Amino acid sequence: xxxxxxxxxxxxxxxxxxxxxxxxxxxxxxxxxxxxxxxxxxxxxxxxxxxxxxxxxxxxxxxxxxxxxxxxxxxxxxxxxxxxxxxxxxxxxxxxxxxxxxxxxxxxxxxxxxxxxxxxxxxxxxxxxxxxxxxxxxxxxxxxxxxxxxxxxxx
Length: 155
What we know:
Blueprint: H1 6-17, E1 24-25, H2 26-35, H3 42-54, E2 59-62, E3 68-71, H4 78-90, H5 96-107, H6 112-118, H7 120-154
Antiparallel strand pairs: 1-3, 2-3
Helix pairs in contact: 1-3, 4-5, 4-7
């Protein structure tokens, strides 16, 4: 049963661990499958990659002495992700909690390898800073409003 899903395991590995700058070699894929208890050869890896390509997945193979594979097209590129994060953060009608939830879901669409390489972790740092700043500003506004209301009622 597991060998029937071998192509899916290969796709998951490529999705989670590769991009154009960080391809996986056939040996990397074989080692991953072996860690999952699936025995395979370089020929079956090539056949499974071809099967994924024929099924419409953008699995790119750099053919050389040791074939290298990666996922070519992602749902979102980093620039598009940052744009969406900015839009969610700017939307005043979305609570900070819901903003974090939405941003977490959207960032799940970027490749984990690209996330580590491109500084998406620093993106989360900026998001946390903005959220804290928004809370501080809200507290200042509420404080100023209460103070102004107190002054007006004393008159």
